[in-house]
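Weekly structure sync - notes
Attendees: PM, LS, DV (DV joined late)
Agenda: review two folding runs queued last week.

Item 1: First target. Sequence and structure tokens pasted below for the record.
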Amino acid sequence: DASFLEQRRKGLGRWINFVVNHPILAADGVLSAFLTEPSFEAWKKHSTAISYDEESVSKRIDRVEEMSIPADLDEKMNVVRSKLPDLVEQWTRICAIAERIWRRREAAAADLSRLNLTLSALTEQNHCCWHQPDAQGACDLFDGVRLGLIKFSSRVRNQSDIVDQRAQAVLSTSLEQLKGQRDLYIATRDLFARHARLSPDRADMLRKRVEQNGRRLEQVKAAQKEGWQAEAEKISNAIERDQMDIQSCMARRVFIRHSMWHELRVVLHNRENALVTQAIQTFVAQERDFERIVISNWEAAVQDVETMPYE
């Protein structure tokens, strides 16, 4: 339905906002094409070939970057990983509670609008005093009360508009900021899941194979049977290939550690604090301004109804 589609639209908006502000993903050519090209098929025909290799194949971490990785990175990762389930649960609960609060405010605005309509109908239908229906002179008591109700109804209508505008603003800004905070922790949780699934490599297996082939090579050289030179060369080439693969695995490990540290330090640490600060400061300032408008409306209402007669 419409509400489900709107919810999905906002979720997609948060995701796009996250990736385009990511320091690495923002520079990705495929992502840029996905977000900007009107026809992906046409883009593929005119674009250069897309590489599906891991980023570690084309990028190398230099010595300075490697030295920037803290020695206790694994401990830091374990601390963050242990916190994530509770953080996701708590921020999910915060989002749900906040939405219920602001939906009730939205409902209150609708009730105020209904109250205004009912008061307007009342004053329109009850337009003359029953006590002197045929009297030439007006009933000051009735007319004074009726005028007060009309003014009060107008202030109720203003209050309905004020509350509804504030509710819609909060639902589209503050609530989305809270959900952005929740999504950040969900994304980090998924990052750790991908790390656990994709970071393992063949380095240990390759080392064992190099050791085995090294022993085989020594045995072949010692036996020197017919055709041993070709066999020795074959084994030596295999050892060389495995050693190159081991070097690639080691470089990949460094790249992964550097990437994880970048994600934790730049993306998670900076954003999780900046997002909360921005959300709270924005909400508090806007709520203050909202309350001032509400007070101003009711102060005007006090002046409107203070002349309503009692007798």
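Item 2: Second target, run right after the first with the same settings.
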Amino acid sequence: MSVATKVKNIIPLLDRVLVQRIKPEQKTSTGIYIPEKAQETPNQGHVLAVGKGMQNKDGKHIPTQLQVGDKIILPSYGGTPVKIAHEEYLLFRDSEILAKVAE
């Protein structure tokens, strides 16, 4: 089974969102390689899967605000790490995501 198929098999529950962080640049524009320890953790990512949403106290359905493929801004810390075939993904609640990047 390929990595893409394994990721598609993960369906977040409720208002959870499956995210993959954008990988940091490993080389500067002049061609100098940046060591891993000196690289900053990127605060942007791509949405890979979304849950159906939550219900409020009255039982009314509140859908998630994100869709698969959205580019988002993430908090510095948080999220539940999920490892699939040597790749790390994160599960966030919809309310924890800071912003959606309009492209």
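Discussion on item 2: The first helix runs from residue 3 to 8.
Action: LS to circulate a short write-up before next sync.
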